[in-house]
Specification:
about 260 residues; mainly beta
Length: about 260
């Protein structure tokens, strides 16, 4: 399944892909967790939903998600796998992104209330390796990057502002690899401001928009995500990669 998402780069983390095939059913549907891949912050799940009676069904987001230990999701998204057949049903890619590490915590996937009473609970396990780099360096006269966390699936940047003012601070990041090559990780020109500030209470936000070229260049590794400005002065940049990143091949991080 994850080769369909990340291409052949999925082979880099094959040992971290968990295929529990946990299943539960009622008189109408069968709900199955086919596969899971997580770094503790970004949890990708392949969910199968089958009709017990063979009727046609297709839903944009048929699931509710509940996290244990008062963890909260930054974002939840759901996409159907249109090109993979699933007898009497559909496969979905469900992504849950959190601000804290949910390794070892339980996650409950339930059908929307209007679809009936059906849920399964799973423990997030077998997470990929991650690297946290302490920066603690001012990038502008108002913005300091404190830490950058990299995993094969994405990045999480924690920064702070002296004053909450102006546009959201976003940086360009490149990776220098062990073989001398360079990977384009994050580009500020992919940031699209949200006028309503809806991504964070009392602050402001933006999305990292993918699915297009930027000034004729290729898309960077980070293709989706969000940037939020919290009332306490923290700026959180959370992004997912379009392919798997081999952490062992990183030599240096370049921020500008």
């Amino acid at each position: 399944y994850f080769t369909a998402i990340f291409g052949n780069s999925a082979n880099l983390i094959a040992d971290n892909i968990w295929s529990p095939e946990i299943e539960t059913a009622n008189e109408t549907y069968t709900l199955t967790l086919e596969s899971m891949l997580s770094d503790g912050y970004k949890t990708n799940m392949i969910i199968g939903l089958k009709s017990q009676h063979g009727e046609e069904m297709a839903y944009d987001m048929p699931f509710d998600i509940d996290l244990s230990n008062d963890s909260e999701a930054i974002s939840i998204s759901c996409n159907e796998f249109p090109d993979i057949s699933y007898e009497n049903g559909y496969l979905y890619r469900l992504r849950v992104e959190t601000a804290n590490n949910i390794d070892g915590e339980t996650l409950t996937i339930a059908l929307k209330e209007n679809l009936g009473d059906l849920a399964l609970t799973v423990t997030v396990d077998g997470v990929t390796a991650a690297k946290e780099i302490t920066i603690d360096a001012p990038i502008t006269d108002n913005y300091t990057i404190e830490t950058i966390q990299l995993s094969p699936l994405g990045l999480l940047i924690i920064g702070s502002e002296d004053e909450l003012k102006g546009a959201l601070p976003v940086v360009n990041i490149d990776l220098l690899m062990q073989d001398g090559s360079k990977k384009w990780l994050l580009d500020r020109s992919l940031i699209v401001d949200l006028d309503d500030g809806s991504t964070v209470t009392g602050g402001g936000g933006a999305i990292i928009a993918g699915e297009h070229d930027v000034l004729g260049k290729d898309i960077p590794l980070a293709t989706e995500g969000n940037v939020s400005r919290n009332p306490d002065g923290r700026v959180v940049t959370n992004a997912s990669f379009g392919e798997i990143l081999d952490l062992n091949q990183i030599k240096a991080i370049v921020i500008n």
